[in-house]
Amino acid sequence: MSDSVDRSTKISLLKEPVVKRVCDALDKSSDRGWRRLGEIVGGERRLRVSSNDMEMCSLKVLELEGSPSRMLLRLMGERGCTTGHLMDYLVTLGNTEAVQCLKTSALQILIQPQSLALISGHNLRLSCHAVGKSPVQYQWFKRHEEVPNCSSPDLVISPVHLKDAGFYICRVNCGDTFEFSKWAQVDVLNVTRSYGQSYHSLEGRLKLAIQPQSQQLHVGEALQLECGAVGRPIPRYQWHRNGVPILNGTKRKLMIPHVMLDHHGRYRCEISSSSERMWTNEVDVVIDDFYAIGGATDKVALLIGNLSYRNHPQLKAPMVDVYDLTNLLRQLNFKVVSLLDLTESEMRNAVDEFLLLLHKGVYGLLYYAGHGYENYGNSFMVPVDAPNPYRSANCLCVQSILKLMQEKETDLNVFLLDMCRKRNFHDDSTPNVVLRVTANIVFGYATCQDAEAFELSSSGFTNGVFVKFLKKRLLDNEKITVVLDRVAEDMGQFDATKGKQALEIRSSLSERRALTDPIQPCDSADLAHADSRQWAKAHELPESMSLDFDCGAQIKLGFAAEFSNVLVIYTHIVKKPEDMSFCQAHELDVDPKEMNRETPEETGIYLLSSSLPQHCLYTRLSSLQKLREELVFTVCLQVTFPAMDDDPVHWTKSINIGKPLIARLDLHRAMRRNSCLQTCLMPHSPSHSPCHSPRPEHCLHLHHGLYQAQDHSRLSPLHHAYEHPQGAVGGSGDSYYENLSRCHTASLSSSPGRPSIPIEASDDINELQTVFINSLQLQQP
C-alpha cells in the first residue's frame, strides 16, 4: 500500500475521516491555516478562489460545528482540485500535520475515546475503533497499568466509582504495527444533593452537578472550593474572584493551602465546553484575622477615562488604563465603577452616584485619565464635550469632589490624576474651595505642577506612563503613600520620560492605611444592604437567553461588560435541524460592517476578547449612559434548505433587555441641584458661562431601540497624552515628546483558534502521552 492516497483522486472523493482530520488541522492553525491556504490557492487560475469565496468560508464559524476549511476544500473540489494538488499546496503552506492526514498507514484509528465527566454510580463507556490490513487487537490502560479483561474496542465500567477517575488510553495492534489512541480523562463526581437535573444523558448541554459553598476561615487555614458539571466532552473550569479570573484556577477544585486576608472576596466558577458556558453560584469567602486592627467598612472606586474628545486631540491609553486598574482594584475588594467618554453632565452625575456609596469608614478612590489642567492649586478634569477653549465652568474641580467626600466622613480619600497640570491661561477664575483639615487624603499626580503627562506612541493598545508602573505596585500590602513612592522611583528610571514627567505625591495621611486593608462589617446591616443595592444598579447584566425559532433552530445570546458603560453581546447557534444547509444569526438593527463580527477584535473588543466564548458573532455597545429608554433589538435568523433550492428564508425575534449596566442610573439626566458643581464657586455655571454653548445631548440612536455604538478601535494617531490642548500653553514643538516609544511589553492578539487536539485535552494529558508511550514502545502483546 502506498504511504499516501492516490494523487489523481479528486478531493471531493476523499473519505470523510480524512477530510475531517485535514479540516481540523487547518481550522486550529492561525498562521498555517485555511486563510493562508486560500491565499495560496487564490493565485491559481484554474481554481479561482476569490475574496467572496473566502468571506463565505469565514461565515461557517457561525454555524454549529461549522468549519471554514471544509467549505474551502468543498469549493476547491468543485473546481477540479486533486489530492496531488492539495498535497502540494499543504507542503507550500508548511502545515505538516495536514500533510500527514493525507497519508495512510497499515493501521488507522477511526474513533478516538472522548474525555467525559459523570456521576458516581452511572455507567462509563469509552470507545476506540481502528481498521488495518489484518485483524486488530485492543488493550486499554489506566495511566501505566493495563486494565484487566479490557481487550475490546469498548471499555465499560458499570457502575463507575470515584476510584475509576483518571486518564485512560488504548493501544491498538495490527501485525507488527501499533498505534496509541488519544488520552481520555474520566472525572467522576460524588454528588450528594440534587440540583433538579437529570444526569443520565452525557451528550449535548452541560449539566451542573456540584455548586460551591460559602466559607468563613481564619488566616493560615486551607480554602477548598469545589464545583462540577457532567458532560461529554469533559467541561473546562475557570475560577473567578471578584469578577477577575484566578491565575491557574482551572481545576474543578480550587485549593489555597494557606489563606491570607487578601483572599477574602466573592468566588464563582465559569464552566464551559466547546459550544456553551455556564456559571456556578457566587459565594462569599470570609477571612478573619484575630490580629487585624482597623480596616474599611467598604471600598469604592470611580474610574473615568476620557479619550474620544469632540474638540480636542484624541487619546488612546485611558481605555487600557481604566480596564487594567478595574481588574486590580476588584482583586482588592473594591466596588468599581469604570466609565469611558463622559460629557460634563454625565461626569457630574457619575460623581453624585459615586458619593451615594460613601459613608463613614469607607475607602474612596477616584482615578481620572484624560485632558486636564491646574490653576491656583485646583485640578480640573476635562469632559469629552468641553468647548475649545474651555474654562473651569466647563470642567470638574477635583477639590470640590474631595470636599463632598469629606462630608461623608470617609476614612481614606485617594485621588489618582493621570492628566496634564499645565496652567490654563484662558481661565482666569479663582475657585474658592474650603477643605476641612483631615489626616486621610492622598493625591497621586501623574506629573508635576505645570507639566504634561504622556501616553506612548504605539500601534497597539498599551498603558500610559503612570499606569504602566502603577499596576505593578498596586497590589502591594503597603501604606498607600509607600506604594506611590515606589511607583515614583520606578518612573524616575524610565528613560523615555526621564526629566519630562515625574509622579508627584501629596498626602495628609497620618495612619497606616493601605488599599489592601480588609473590609470590616459596618455596624448597620441596613446601610450595608443599601450600599449593595445601589452598587448592583450599575452592574446588572442581562441574563443569557436561548431563542427558539419555528424552523427548529436555537440561538443563544450572551452578555458581558467591558466597562460599566460598555456592553458586549455575543450570539451563536446551538441547534440546527439536519435538513438545513445554511444557518446564520445576527442582530438586524446594526450596521454589519461595524457590528456582528466574527472576532471580538473586529468590533473593537480588544481587552475582553480572551474571556469571551469563541465562534460567535460579537457586538460592542458603548456609551450606555446615554440610553434613555429600554434597549430593544431584533435578532435575525437566515437559513436555507436544499428542498427550497437554497433560497434564503428569514425569521426574526425582538429582544428587550431593559437598561443594562450604567444605563439604569440615567446619567444623561439634568444635573442635580446638589451636584458637585455647587461646591466649587465659579463666576459662571455651565448653563450660563459665556464660553459655554451647550450642544444637543447626543442620545443613543435606536433602530428598533438598538444603539449604534462607537468603535473605539478607530482612534486618531496619538498626540501628547493628556496634554493641555490650548495652543498658547500646551506647546508641542519638541519632537522628542512626539516620538516617545512604547516600552511596555503587553500586546493584544486575536482570539486563539481551535486547540490542536480535542477541546478536553490539557497539558496534563500531553505530558502523560509522551511519557507513557515512550515507556510502552516495546510492550506489544
TrEMBL record:
<protein>
    <submittedName>
        <fullName>MALT paracaspase 1</fullName>
    </submittedName>
</protein>
<dbReference type="GO" id="GO:0006508">
    <property type="term" value="P:proteolysis"/>
</dbReference>
<dbReference type="InterPro" id="IPR007110">
    <property type="entry name" value="Ig-like_dom"/>
</dbReference>
<dbReference type="InterPro" id="IPR041077">
    <property type="entry name" value="MALT1_Ig"/>
</dbReference>
<dbReference type="InterPro" id="IPR029030">
    <property type="entry name" value="Caspase-like_dom_sf"/>
</dbReference>
<dbReference type="InterPro" id="IPR033540">
    <property type="entry name" value="MALT1_IG-like_dom_sf"/>
</dbReference>
<dbReference type="Pfam" id="PF13927">
    <property type="entry name" value="Ig_3"/>
</dbReference>
<dbReference type="InterPro" id="IPR011029">
    <property type="entry name" value="DEATH-like_dom_sf"/>
</dbReference>
<dbReference type="InterPro" id="IPR052039">
    <property type="entry name" value="Caspase-related_regulators"/>
</dbReference>
<feature type="domain" description="Ig-like">
    <location>
        <begin position="107"/>
        <end position="181"/>
    </location>
</feature>
<dbReference type="InterPro" id="IPR003599">
    <property type="entry name" value="Ig_sub"/>
</dbReference>
<dbReference type="Pfam" id="PF13895">
    <property type="entry name" value="Ig_2"/>
</dbReference>
<feature type="domain" description="Ig-like">
    <location>
        <begin position="206"/>
        <end position="286"/>
    </location>
</feature>
<feature type="domain" description="Caspase family p20">
    <location>
        <begin position="297"/>
        <end position="424"/>
    </location>
</feature>
<dbReference type="Pfam" id="PF18703">
    <property type="entry name" value="MALT1_Ig"/>
</dbReference>
<dbReference type="GO" id="GO:0004197">
    <property type="term" value="F:cysteine-type endopeptidase activity"/>
</dbReference>
<dbReference type="InterPro" id="IPR011600">
    <property type="entry name" value="Pept_C14_caspase"/>
</dbReference>
<dbReference type="InterPro" id="IPR003598">
    <property type="entry name" value="Ig_sub2"/>
</dbReference>
<dbReference type="InterPro" id="IPR036179">
    <property type="entry name" value="Ig-like_dom_sf"/>
</dbReference>
<dbReference type="InterPro" id="IPR037940">
    <property type="entry name" value="MALT1_Death"/>
</dbReference>
<dbReference type="InterPro" id="IPR001309">
    <property type="entry name" value="Pept_C14_p20"/>
</dbReference>
<dbReference type="InterPro" id="IPR013783">
    <property type="entry name" value="Ig-like_fold"/>
</dbReference>
<dbReference type="Pfam" id="PF00656">
    <property type="entry name" value="Peptidase_C14"/>
</dbReference>
